[in-house]
Every structure is written in C-alpha cells, then in structure tokens.
Specification:
Elements (H helix, E strand, L loop, with lengths): L4 H13 L2 H7 L4 H15 L4 E4 L2 E4 L1 H24 L8 E7 L1 H18 L3 E7 L2 H9 L5 E5 L8 E15 L9 E2 L8 E5 L4 H12 L5 E6 L2 H9 L5 E4 H7 L5 E6 L5 E8 L7 H13 L1
Parallel strand pairs: 3-4, 3-5, 7-11, 8-9
Antiparallel strand pairs: 1-2, 5-12, 6-10, 6-11, 6-12
C-alpha cells in the first residue's frame, strides 16, 4: 500500500467537501486525475473508501480510518515544515482558517495581508462559514483556527478575544427609520430590505434572530457584500443591516443614515478558537499570536 502526500491531501479535501468534484477543485486538481487517484487508493487498499451517491460521497469505515490517519500525517508534515522553515526557506507552510462573515469582511483582510507579507512561505486556506459550523470544523480537525462569535458552542475548544462586531441598520437619508438613533429590529419588519444572500453565514444569523423576534426581513434584493448593500441603500432601494465598521467606512462616500439596533444579538464578541492553542502547528500558532496583537 503506497499513498503519497498528494493522495492524502486530495482524500481529505474530498472527505471534507463530501464530493469528488469539489474535493478536486480544493486540491487544485483536474476531476479525471482526482478520480483516478481515488480509485488507485481503493485498489491499493483492496477496499472501498467512498460510497458514491447522486448528492456526493460518504466515507466507508475504511475511509473514516484513512481520513483520521491522513490528518495526522499531514499535521505532522506541517509541524516538520514549520520547524525546518528556519533552515530551508523553500519549504511552504499551510494554515486552515475558518471565519464568520463579519470577521472575514471587516477585521481579517489587513491582518492577514500583514502576516502573509512577513511570511512569504506560508499559505492560508480561508473558508467563510457560520460560527456553529466553524466550531464543529475546528473540533473535528477540519480547520486549525476558527474565528466565531462567543455565542457559539465552544465546548472542548480554547478561545481568545479577537474583536467586537456591532450590527447596525443603514437607511436612505430622509427615510422614516433614519430619524431614530436606535430601533429594535422588529420595528423594521414592514420595510423592504437589501440583504446578503441566503447562503451567507451572517444573513443566516440575522434571519434566525429576526424570525425569533417575529420580524423576518422582507428581502427586495440580495447582494454579495456590505459595500453593495450600502450603495443600494444610499440610492433608496431599501434598508439593510451591516457591520458598524463597514457603515462607518462607506458613509464617507455614500449618502445614507446609520441607526443603532437595540437587540442584544446585534452586538457580537468575536473570538479565536482552536482545539488546543499550544498544540497548533508553529505557523498556525504564529498566526494566532499575530491576530491577538492586531485585535
């Protein structure tokens, strides 16, 4: 039985994506090549690793065992790269970072840019997910580091404070809501909204809490970024909810009003989490230290 590191990385990508197609894309490999490698691994092992279905793939017991060992091997390789990095500048490190929307949009870009500029041999795989999915991924070994709200279930994980994220309402100048300094979200229910896409983790968070308050937002149009929401709001399309840092930034160039939300869920404390901070690979540990310093 001979599996190389490329095989193991591909298999982890396929297992995490529950799809050979998406796994191949994550491993930057052609689908035909990825399929051939998976089949070669199954032939070498003499057992099926995946159960193929119309909606993707699931792991067989043999696949579960291989996934466990593949993660251990790749983590050990990452430790080796980190330790040898001081002696061999050509070795590349890899960190898997999963983040919620607010942190990824508002707090991480500059911090990650500075870190990557200082560490040219380190790559970061960033995934945007809801906080509850991120904590599960970190606990399950799918991600090295997560950035989530402290309302997520952090059982079994270690965490550090990262940032405060306050959600605010943005409304066109002259809008009835723009006259208020603060409103409860339920007071906005009758107005059309410019929202993020339904598949966006932050929109999922907003919609969940709004529904609990009996005020699900009436989405008139869905956009992909805070900037796009602010632009449409400034042009009178509707109202929206964005991070306060984004509203402050775009308000300099666009004409809209910012109104505080009185709902407790509008203020979120973001934290960095990992299974064990002191057991992270060196590159990931250094990234956590950098994020702490820039928080």
């Amino acid at each position: 039985m001979r599996f190389d590191l490329t095989d193991l990385r591909l298999f982890v990508h396929v297992a995490e994506a529950a799809s050979i197609t998406r796994g191949a894309a994550g491993a930057h490999m052609a689908l035909a090549s990825a399929s051939a490698r998976i089949q070669g691994m199954e032939q070498a092992l003499g057992a099926a690793l995946l159960q193929r279905g119309r909606r993707g793939v699931t792991l067989t017991p043999a696949g579960q065992a291989l996934l466990h060992h593949a993660r251990l091997v790749l983590q050990q390789v990452e430790h080796m790269r980190a330790e040898l990095g001081a002696y061999a500048s050509g070795l590349r490190g890899h960190v898997r970072l999963w983040s919620n929307t607010a942190a990824l949009s508002e707090f991480l870009p500059e911090a990650l840019a500075a870190y990557l500029a200082r560490h040219p041999n380190i790559d970061i795989d960033v995934q945007e997910r809801p906080s509850y999915v991120i904590t599960q991924a970190v606990a399950g070994g799918f991600a090295d580091i997560g950035i989530v709200t402290d309302a997520a279930d952090l059982t079994g994980l270690e965490s550090l404070p990262f940032a405060l994220d306050r959600l605010v309402l943005v409304a066109p100048r002259g809008h009835r809501l723009a006259r208020h300094r603060q409103v409860a979200f339920r007071e906005t229910a009758r107005y059309p909204f410019v929202t993020l896409g339904t598949d966006n983790p932050l929109q999922e968070y907003i919609s969940r809490h709004a529904s609990r308050a009996g005020a699900p937002p009436q989405s008139r149009i869905q956009m992909r970024s805070f900037e796009a929401i602010c632009r449409l709001v400034a042009n009178g399309v509707g109202v929206g909810v964005v991070s306060e840092t984004a509203a402050r930034r775009y308000r300099r160039a666009l004409r809209f009003a910012t109104v505080a939300l009185s709902d407790p869920w509008a203020l979120r404390r973001l934290v960095i989490c990992a299974r064990r901070l002191d057991a992270l690979p060196v590159h990931a540990r250094r990234l956590v230290e950098h994020l702490k310093a820039t928080a």
